[in-house]
Backbone:
């Protein structure tokens, strides 16, 4: 479960990077204060659910619902994971 | 003392001065035209050309700078800002040549070489904004983007021929370079209207920045049409110039509001 969420978080950051650039996307992820990024490694400092929720909320600050939709699409791709 | 009632964008002193420049130029334009009622003045025209060149260069530089922060060629928003920067650069260069031509009566109309690229560059910029905010995921918007340009183009063409007391068929046979500007403007405005109407999911702290850019592009469409209805020969400071000035200012101001630091300030 934790590994899958780490993968989802990685993909969300990648998708958001394609939209707003990697600098802003990584800044947004770090701003949650529950996700630590070292190179390609992602460390969660909170429960997986909490980390994911805070990440989506952080990206929502950019373009609102339009940003959330991008996150939702990544989550939908991982069918076994339920939000 | 900071005024907490002011929106975030106005707390930035630089943005405040840009806004002040926009308002004072509009007031100056209105005051001038009201006072001597459309008399030709070289100094006024020169000032206005300089105002357009300055704001377009500023907007182009800021857009380029912002595009680097927003991912440059590796992100949709970055690409969008590159093309907005190029469009504003074409505005500045075109206006410089227009200004030179108005002084030397050069028959070559070199400014058209730059002006002609404004709408296509803006259009590509808006395309990437649409991509960034997921507009193309909406089927209705996609249908609108196919149908609206043709519809508005026909209505726009008929409207212009009626206003000029021309026969639509004869006018069609005598298409000139100004018609190309209108075609570009129609496609641009259609994109913009679709974005404004159908992007209900757009929110966040940059919503107003993007909306201001889009309103600026709509002003470009109005300016192009005004120029067609009231054509002026190499004179600066006409009504269409005022609309173009407002268009460039809105786009520049919108780009200034796309400041990534706003995200951190909001959090703090």
Residues:
């Amino acid at each position: 479960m934790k590994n899958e969420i780490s993968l989802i978080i990685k993909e969300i950051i990648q998708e958001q990077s394609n939209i707003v650039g990697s600098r802003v996307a990584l800044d947004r992820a770090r701003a949650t204060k529950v996700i630590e990024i070292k190179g390609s490694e992602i460390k969660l400092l909170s429960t997986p659910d909490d980390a994911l929720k805070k990440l989506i909320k952080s990206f929502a600050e950019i373009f609102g619902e339009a940003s959330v939709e991008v996150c939702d699409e990544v989550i939908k791709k991982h069918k076994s994971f339920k939000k | 003392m900071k005024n907490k009632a002011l929106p975030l964008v106005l707390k930035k002193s630089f943005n405040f001065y840009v806004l002040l420049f926009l308002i004072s130029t509009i007031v100056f334009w209105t005051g001038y035209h009201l006072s001597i009622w459309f008399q030709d003045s070289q100094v006024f025209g020169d000032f206005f050309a300089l105002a357009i060149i300055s704001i377009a260069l500023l907007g182009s530089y800021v857009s380029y700078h912002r595009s680097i922060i927003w991912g440059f060629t590796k992100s949709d928003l970055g690409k969008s800002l590159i093309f907005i920067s190029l469009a504003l650069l074409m505005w500045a260069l075109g206006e410089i040549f227009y200004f030179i031509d108005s002084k030397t009566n050069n028959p070559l109309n070199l400014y058209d070489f730059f002006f002609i690229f404004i709408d296509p560059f803006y259009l590509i910029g808006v395309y990437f904004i649409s991509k960034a905010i997921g507009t193309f995921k909406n089927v209705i918007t996609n249908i609108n983007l196919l149908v609206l340009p043709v519809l508005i183009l026909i209505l726009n063409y008929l409207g212009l021929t009626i206003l000029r007391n021309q026969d639509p068929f004869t006018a069609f046979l005598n298409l000139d370079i100004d018609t190309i500007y209108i075609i570009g403007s129609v496609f641009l405005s259609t994109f913009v209207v679709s974005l404004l109407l159908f992007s209900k999911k757009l929110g966040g702290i940059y919503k107003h920045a993007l909306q201001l850019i889009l309103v600026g592009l709509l002003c470009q469409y109005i300016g192009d049409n005004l120029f067609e209805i009231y054509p002026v020969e190499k004179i600066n400071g006409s009504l269409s110039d005022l609309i173009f000035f407002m268009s460039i200012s809105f786009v520049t101001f919108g780009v200034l509001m796309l400041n990534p630091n706003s995200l951190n300030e909001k959090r703090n």
